[in-house]
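Notes on consecutive records. When two proteins share a document, each keeps its own sequence and its own token line. Never mix them. Below: protein one.
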Amino acid sequence: MRMTTFFTIGYEGASLRDFIDTLTEAGVEHVLDVRELPQSRRPGFSKRALSEALEEAGISYSHCKQLGDPKHGREAARRGDMDEFRMIFEAHLDLVASKEALEESANTVCRAPTVLLCYERNPNGCHRSLVAKRLLGLRSLQVQHLGVRSHVNKRTRAAAPAAVGHP
């Protein structure tokens, strides 16, 4: 039986163009945004702007608020208390609504090449790794953590300047 691969990615420090080029190179067809609040100070990464840019690139987008890190978990992570952060988020994932969201997400990653999106570049300090771990327990899946690479697809970029958007 062949395992389905899904991906995770964080956009910290990335331009929108490099982010989308990285997804395209990896063969991603769907972005599953697992930020509780899909807002960003980084241009192009708030929900509406991101979904529009992804659509232009032929990549679908959905947001799953329930799989986002709740405020008190984010606060613990900001303080550097990673043990408390993990405890809070693991308890959050045990909620009935979160288990339902995980099941839906597992179905999504089995239908199309999907990436779980959050902010942090390093997956080890991000709740998306805990979401990914739970998904691995639900289906025959494997996960690959992507890092946004600069100037991934120079040939496509030269052929279609500014088609995806600006950083």
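Protein two starts on the next line and is unrelated to protein one.
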Amino acid sequence: MGQLVHTLPEGEQIDGVTLLAGEIYLLRRKGRDQVEVYDVITLRLQRRLTVPNTHQFTDMTSCEHNRCMYIGNLIANCVDRLDVQGAITRWAVNDEPWGLSVNAAHNVLVTCPWVRKIKEFSSHGDLLRELTLPDDVITPWHAIQTRSGQFIVCHGGVVDPVHRVCMISADGRHVVHSHSGQAGSDTDQYDAPVHVAVDDNEFVFVADPYNRRVTLLSPTLEYVREVVSRDQLKGQPRSLYLDTRQRLLYVAVSEREEGKWRRGHAAVFIV
């Protein structure tokens, strides 16, 4: 089981967490000052950044190579690119974006759940390719590309019949491995798995929000253990970032009251 070592301050709902250049970035759902920047050592707030003309965030990821972050904007169907100096550019996705990740080529992968696609963009928004996932991969939320070129995808909305994590072939056409199936709360089940992280040995961490836990899978997607339990989380895990050097897992946690997201914080675990 992972050990809780830090908790960052509570505030508005968190839609993403990432690290860049020795700082922690939290993405809050509010009108301005949405990005909070903390020192990774002291955990002190350094500054706040505003992403203008936003409606609803979905995810955030970062790229050390290009020294920037990418933020998904659901209503505007776009991605905002935010560099470490605070400069912002925007490009259209032309579908509703959800999960974001950066691959080994430093390109941005945008998962579009309603059309079952992964779109790959350059750092400045040039569409490089788009993959349509197999028919049984319904409502994909997030995808990460492994070094071998295959994709780890978590999928399944609340009303969907299948909730699982899949390894998809590099051409996007075939399911190579999968874990789980029907929604549920047993060890080998998920309830709308929404985000994944992959370590250097290609073990997979899965955020399982409605079961309020994070699960660890082997490189071939076999169950290993529960890394973070519901007893360790005050709310639902919505987004993950894994610091592979320090073996620290950052978990963006949000809480619901009366059917609405009210609060959020980030919890940090040694894994």
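For the record: The mean pLDDT is 94.
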